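From the shared-data thread, chain only:
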Amino acid sequence: MRPALLLVSGATLAAPVAVTAQRVSFGPLVTEEGGPLQRIAYTPATEVADLVGRDRAAAEIWVGYSNIFEQDSASTHQLYLDMERLITSVGVRWGVVERLELGGRATFETTGGGFLDGFISWWHTTLGLGNADREKYPSRAYGQRLADEGSLLLDVPRRTLALEDVRLFAKASILGGAGSAGAVSVRAVTRIPTQTNFVGPERTDVALMLLGRLSGEHWHLHGSTGGSTIRASRDFPTVLRSSAWFLDVGLERVLAPWMSALVQYSFATPHLKGIHDPEIDGWAGNFVFGAAGRLGPSWRWNVSFQEDIPPVSPAIDFTLGIGVRRTW
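Structure, as tokens:
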């Protein structure tokens, strides 16, 4: 066989190998902080660094069911959070050009006394994480209140599919992209609140975040970091910070061409200040684990479990999340 023919044949055989050596990433897991004291302003949601692609569109829905219990009283403040919450977020995105996508998201909230108090007490006892005196309060109770030196800061009634906020965003690719060994992008978000969490009107927040992905054949590393404004209410400037910062890191292991296992950890600075109680104005941390994958060429799914670590923080006790995404 001629040398030229050998080279052509070798290149033809190597092409599929080069394509399949880089496995597709299904992460990161879709998660978002659900603590009421954090959600008075913008809370970051994990986001993939890759863009949807030019002239392509995607629709996604994510639901997170959470159990919350925090009780703390001192001479300066009284905190009582006892509830279960269902967050439903619905979003769309469109690739305007190759390296730019635009999109929006609406978030709906349903809250009440719930039914998981007994299970959560057992779960925390089994893991040795402490139960925060949960057993001293009635099961399936509801409360969402915070007072500071006689001033009522938070008092939220039960809600059923109430529109919590609307978010508009633009994401631009800086380096790499889908199918490459890495990707870096930047995302700008505007949050428009539609509910009142503080005693007083909420105001629009803006956020800017940097996202990244580094990929191998079976492993993918995901990360994001950024900051946002905190403009919850002008009525309580002494207890509100002006900005917040956040960081998220995740590791993905490809188990099959259609599924991955993932672990993540997220960190966020508090939105309140001056109370000097880690359950109110401490930093929030969450450990997340789960799986993500695809169904056919157009559907993506992810399932996650989120636990607050450390437990003494404004972060939510636990969240079970399920997400689905369809691309055209």
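The helical segments are 3-21, 117-127, 278-281.
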